Amino acid sequence: MSGYVLAIDQGTTSTRAIVFDGKMKVAGVGQKEFPQIYPQSGWVEHDPEDIWESVLWTVRKAIKAAGIEAKDIASIGITNQRETVVVWERESGKPIQNAIVWQDRRTANYCEKLKRQDLEKLFTRRTGLLLDPYFSGTKLSWMLANVKGARARAAKGELCFGTIDTFLIWRLTGGKYFATDATNASRTLMYNIARNEWDADLLEILRVPAAMLPEVKDCAADFGVTDPAIFGAAIPISGVAGDQHAAVIGQACFEPGMMKSTYGTGCFALLNTGADIVRSKNRLLTTIAYRLDGETTYALEGSIFIAGAAVQWLRDGLKVIKRASDSGDLAGHADPTQEVYMVPAFTGLGAPHWDANARGAMFGMTRNTGPAEFARAALEAVCYQTRDLLDAMHKDWKNGADDTVLRVDGGMVASDWTMQCLADLLDAPVDRPDILETTALGAAWLAGSRAGVWPDRETFAKTWSRDRRFAPEMDEKVRSAKLKGWRNAVRRTLSEA
Ligand SMILES: Nc1ncnc2c1ncn2[C@@H]1O[C@H](COP(=O)(O)OP(=O)(O)O)[C@@H](O)[C@H]1O
Ligand SMILES: O=P(O)(O)OC[C@H](O)CO
């Protein structure tokens, strides 16, 4: 059998399909952006049909670019933007409304109400998460309450809930498979991460009927085969993981204490804590890093909602750059004497603040402030936020994470300026791998190893290689002054400040 494996990476702003060959090298790529829908302030939606079309288009393109046919692909791995909620009719496969995206804040009041009922502790104990609109549970509850007849239909088993992976599996298998994996389930606010099952008590609180939930499987498992009418062959789907979890795998962070941070639309840092469920005292999340052969590995996670999205805003909103890749050069020309800070709380603040109502702010502007200072402030903000996450992780995890080198990936890490700034502000080295498509690679490894065409975990881990290490160069005095300025800016941005 050939070793070709197809990874579908369904991200927040674009879908990528990548064909890897038997040597785990990229053989063909297809990528497509799709529309973001902002119906009102703080709301973010996707049309599931746009997502589906983008998957079909990119997969066909990647297969063509690789110069192969669908029948040559041994297995498919799916990785996806997490938490985003789709509900569709079991009979017709039609979504009942647009998907509510992870960035959407419409359930902020509902979360506050649950907190006032003193329920946050219960949710955190069972799911490792917090009562924030970020997670799927309250979004699903909102949909069931706001789409006419939805709750009753869901209880009768007429509707299906899924994160994007589940929706794609359903569509790709012609409605034959209704499943998710443990990592995606662990982001829903409805999944008990210690018992590895949907939590009946939480479902009752959120008023979500169990009849609409998918089966939860290991990350490398049998998720059915594609309907041959779609790509021209029945291809097994045998790997599934949320994108940040797939990146943990693709970065080969298999040992406790290893850590990766992915810089796409948002930024997500995950620290492998092994078989231990580490409870954060610093408002980080506990999540399932991956589940293989029935064994669960856990992680501490820090989630930042806006990373590359701030660069997109420089490009599309302010129009001060033409391409995302121009941001580093522009930032490099900023006036070093201007202390300008941007707190990009466009959709609230994530870890460790979890302030759904905060909105973005700039501080320290003068008449001399221009595009270069904005660009520097946007890129620095991503680095400052990573520093806040890592400080929290070091407090929660005492098993030697201080020596851990951060492995980075995602679109933004192409920027040398940003990576140097990151090492400087973290005061720690940052490793950029040769392969930046680690999310897709992680999903492909799940699928390829399960299909028996790719190597085992240990052999795969040895193939990780470094493109460049960024070492800290900043003077300690400068760093402390900058960190102080940042913390002050955040304090003034918080909604209760
Ligand atoms: N050279 C660069 N410098 C800074 N930001 C970049 C650069 N290249 C891409 N980006 C940013 O990275 C993001 C894209 O990364 P990607 O991993 O594809 O994200 P996602 O999977 O969330 O769609 C975009 O938000 C873009 O603005
Ligand atoms: O689309 P990305 O790569 O920014 O990832 C989104 C995350 O999975 C949201 O939790």
TrEMBL record:
Q: Does the keyword Nucleotide-binding apply?
A: yes
Catalytic activity, EC: 2.7.1.30
Coiled-coil stretches, from where to where?
Answer: none
Provide the binding site for sn-glycerol 3-phosphate: 12, 82-83, 134, 243
Question: Where, in this chain's numbering, is ATP bound?
Answer: 12-14, 265, 308, 312, 411
Q: Do you know which HAMAP family this protein is assigned to?
A: Glycerol_kin (MF_00186)
| Protein name as it appears in the record | Glycerol kinase
Q: Which gene encodes it?
A: glpK
